[in-house]
Specification:
heterodimer, A: 349 residues, alpha/beta, Rossmann fold, Helicase, Ruva Protein, domain 3, two-stranded antiparallel sheet, 11 strands, B: 484 residues, mainly alpha, 2 domains, 18 helices, 49% helix
Chain lengths: 349, 484
């Protein structure tokens, strides 16, 4: 039985995704789940915030990803004195051939397909906002002139959880712009052994690009379009909406009083006690897009409940604003998300 | 375009939808049965409790306890009905259940959701739509009706049947107990009822197997008591006819008659001297070829009664009997009832046999509805499955008025008149039964013997033209008066 064009597209997506994973695995030891989340966000068209201690391979992952995708790559090391123009670019007075001088826009490092914003929390909120605005709008405006960013545009920002003095934690509104927030854990004993063994010799990993440079962007855009073509049943949308609504505490401000949804979940006790503000609708968009990528990886043209559940923690944990009680009791947002998912299983019937 | 007619895609979608509808109907039917059986179980228990309470508690306590119980039963009724409505699922929900049961990762429900959204006849909702369809086609053998549909009958039927039997038994206990039993649910009485239950059940079973229609009201009676009235034939009707006098189709109210006639009838009801018919007259009656009912006679006594005219207001089957009445009185088999059982269905209207029956015998029959014919009666019992033949005094078939169709009073052309010479005479006791018709207690018009003084006072009624509908009652009244 010959494969239909749709099946061929899905197969091509699966092969591309797995080839990227395989190439990254050449240089990244472990962190398979993290790499899958990063690639999921990449094909879904989102950006990823990686939180992890220094020296665990954050920068290496991003640089390797750009190399494998054969896309342009830039890195910005965020510091306190970094200015927005240092990211977006600025107008400079340049000498023209005829001797006259003119303002010419010089693109900043943000004009790349893949951007590594290293230790984003060390820059001032003004600089952070410039980056996050560019992430959301895929454009920058300098001196009244708007410049489109290259597509695909993918930002990988890192957070250093230590040395918090002199840092500017990202506001929740800006955290919401990130598709996923993933944590880079310490490598295991065996992974450390492999890391130190493979990086201390003259042998370097030979990364092979998955796409040709000329057609890489076009191919990736086509695959992103394919992700959005995955079908979603209405009851899955109801399920996702119920999950999002379940993250909002019962006594939260700005809560709609006229909600008559039949599939709303009962508020979890943890949510009421520890959550100050729940997820925004962006969380729901993230759940659906991430689930679509997972469905394609599974060879399906539709998303399932399991796809949503698998994507829920990285999609929602940074969108929950916990209160002081949660910090005092060292409650992790991912724990709350897990509880919500468990309570939402009854909606699957 | 999705589902273009005649394409494989359309056929595949139709196949999926057909099977899904089948599974959905099975799921709905299962849920409905489950709720109804559960409801029936609760209601049966409630009814049983009410019955036991009615015989166990005092009226006050029964009232106090029954109202909460009835309210609870009403609540349960509404609850399960509401649940049955809620559990009634549509196609999309059925698809979700199949997805969950078979592990299809929402492939089927997504497809059905698209179909329910009206994707048929429209452009493909996605470039991945063919893949979804292809996957569902490949998974079609995974969810056959046998695999995913629930059982046809839920196990909830078992407690329902048990409780229904319990309720029926509890309902039967007072009925099976003696009337004098004050506490039917006492241990002793329950033991006795249980001991008698197999025997009674076997009797009931035998009656059912013998195709006899109705069981008796009481257990242990004679099997004759339970005979089919049609098979019992004429005697049953003989005794039923007087009880049915008040049927509106048969009688005109007494008040509709002339006042003088009413007064005479009322006087006659007070009693007339009993006169037995002479044997010679009985022989005349038995030998008579024409209908003895005076009302059916024409003014010219030599003219034969027009049986066809009589049957105008009768039912077709009754008409047939009436017409056959002119063919021979003694042929009770031919002139039997519409059931053609061969047993001569006879009514008092024939006036040929009822007067021969003893009053006490009639009373017993009236009480139980059965009749054991005497050897000289117009009805001879049949043997085995065959119907009995008409006896020597068998009538000429069922009187049509027994069936109650004759509601229109005639205009006087079918009336009768009792002359002063007319009297009822009964056969003398001890008369030879071989020569006389025992059932020939009819009217002999020429006899003037035994005309009492009181009878002579009945000059008016005897000369009046009484409507045919009152022929029976007048004859009976006079016969009763004479018997006194």
């Amino acid at each position: 039985m010959s494969e239909s064009p749709a099946t061929q597209l899905i197969t091509e997506f699966q092969q591309t995704f797995r080839r990227i994973e395989a190439e990254l695995a050449k240089v990244i030891v472990g962190h398979n789940e993290l790499i899958r989340h990063i690639l999921t966000a990449f094909f879904a068209g989102g950006h990823v915030l990686i939180e992890g201690v220094p020296g665990t391979g954050k920068t290496l992952i991003v640089r390797s990803l750009a190399e494998v995708l054969n896309l342009s790559f830039n890195r910005i090391q965020f510091t306190v004195d970094l200015m927005p123009a240092d990211i977006t670019g600025t107008r400079m007075v340049m000498d023209r051939d005829d001797g006259r001088r003119d303002f010419v826009f010089v693109e900043g490092p943000i004009f790349a397909h893949v951007l590594l914003a290293d230790e984003i929390n060390r820059s001032t909120p003004k600089t952070q906002a410039a980056l996050l605005e560019a992430m959301a709008e895929q454009q920058v405006t300098v001196a009244g002139t708007t410049y489109r960013l290259q597509s695909p545009f993918f930002v990988l920002a890192t957070l250093n959880p230590i040395e918090m003095e002199g840092t500017y934690p990202l506001p929740e509104a800006q955290l919401d712009r990130f598709f996923f927030k993933v944590r880079l854990t310490y490598p295991t004993h065996q992974e450390i052994q492999r890391i130190i063994g493979s990086t201390t010799t003259n042998v370097t990993a030979d990364l092979r690009p998955v796409f040709d440079h000329a057609e890489a962007a076009q191919k990736i855009l086509m695959l992103r379009q394919l992700v959005r073509d995955v079908l979603v049943a209405p009851h899955i949308e109801e399920y996702i909406a119920a999950l999002i609504h379940a993250t909002i505490p019962a006594k939260a401000k700005y809560l709609s009083t006229g909600d008559t949804a039949k599939t709303t979940l009962a508020k979890d006790d943890f949510v009421n006690r520890y959550v100050g503000f729940g997820s925004s609708p962006r969380g729901g968009q993230t759940l659906i897009l991430g689930a679509k990528v997972l469905a394609l990886l599974d060879g399906r043209a539709n998303i399932s409940y399991d796809d949503v559940d698998r994507i829920a923690v990285p999609a929602l944990n940074h969108r929950l604003v916990l209160n002081f009680a949660a910090e005092a009791e060292n409650i992790d947002p991912s724990d709350i998300v897990e509880r919500i998912i468990q309570s939402a299983r009854k909606l699957r019937r | 375009m999705v589902g273009f007619p005649g394409t494989d895609e359309r056929l595949l979608l139709a196949g999926i939808e057909d099977r899904l509808r089948w599974v959905r109907s099975r799921i709905n039917w299962y849920g409905l049965q489950r709720n109804l059986y559960t409801l029936g179980t609760v209601l049966a228990i409630g009814v049983a409790l009410l019955i036991v309470g009615a015989f166990t508690f005092s009226p006050l306590w029964f009232t106090v306890l029954s109202w909460p119980l009835l309210l609870a039963l009403a609540f349960v009724l509404l609850f399960f009905l509401r649940r049955a409505v809620i559990e009634w699922i549509d196609l999309t929900v059925a698809a979700r259940r199949i997805d969950a049961k078979v592990g299809m990762k929402e492939r089927l429900s997504t497809l059905v959701a698209q179909l329910a959204g009206g994707v048929i006849g429209k452009p493909q909702p996605s470039q991945l739509w063919p893949h979804l369809l292809q996957e569902n086609a490949a998974l079609l053998p995974e969810w056959t009706v046998k695999q995913v549909a629930p059982r046809r009958v839920p196990w909830h039927i078992l407690p329902f049947l048990l409780t229904a039997l319990l309720a029926l038994f509890i309902l039967a206990v007072p009925l099976m107990s003696a009337r004098s039993e004050s506490s039917p649910f006492s241990v002793d009485n329950l033991r006795q009822v249980l001991e008698e239950l197999p025997e009674r059940a076997s009797q009931a079973f035998e009656k059912q197997m013998s195709l006899l229609p109705e069981p008796s009201e009481q257990w242990g009676k004679s099997s004759l008591y339970n005979q089919d009235p049609q098979q019992a034939g004429g005697p049953m009707r003989l005794e039923e006819a007087p009880q049915d006098e008040d049927r509106p189709q048969e009688a005109t109210p007494l008040a509709a008659l002339p006042e003088a006639l009413q007064r005479k009838i009322r006087q006659a009801l007070q009693g007339l001297p009993d006169k037995e018919p002479k044997p010679q007259e009985q022989q005349d009656i038995a030998k008579g070829k024409e209908d003895r009912r005076l009302a059916l006679r024409s003014a010219d006594k030599t003219k034969a009664p027009d049986a066809a005219a009589e049957g105008k207001n009768l039912r077709p089957d009754a008409t047939q009997q009436t017409q056959s009445s002119g063919r021979g009185r003694g042929d009770g088999k031919n002139n039997g009832g519409p059931s053609a059982s061969g047993s001569a269905s006879q009514s008092p209207a024939q006036g040929s046999g009822i007067q021969q029956l003893e009053r006490a015998q009639l009373d017993r029959k009236n009480a139980r509805g059965s009749f054991q014919p005497s050897p000289d009666s117009p009805q001879l019992p049949g043997s085995g499955g065959e119907a009995g033949e008409g006896g020597p005094g068998a009538g000429s078939g069922t009187d049509p008025r027994i069936y109650g169709e004759q509601s229109v009073l005639n205009d006087g052309s079918k009336s009768f008149q009792l002359s002063l010479e007319t009297t009822h005479e009964r056969a003398r006791q001890g008369e030879d039964s071989d020569t006389d018709d025992k059932d020939a207690g009819g009217i002999t018009e020429k006899s003037t013997r035994g005309l009492s003084q009181q009878q002579s006072l009945d000059d008016t009624i005897r000369k009046s033209r009484v409507p045919a509908e009152y022929e029976e009652i007048v004859k009976r009244v006079f016969a009763r008066g004479e018997s006194r």
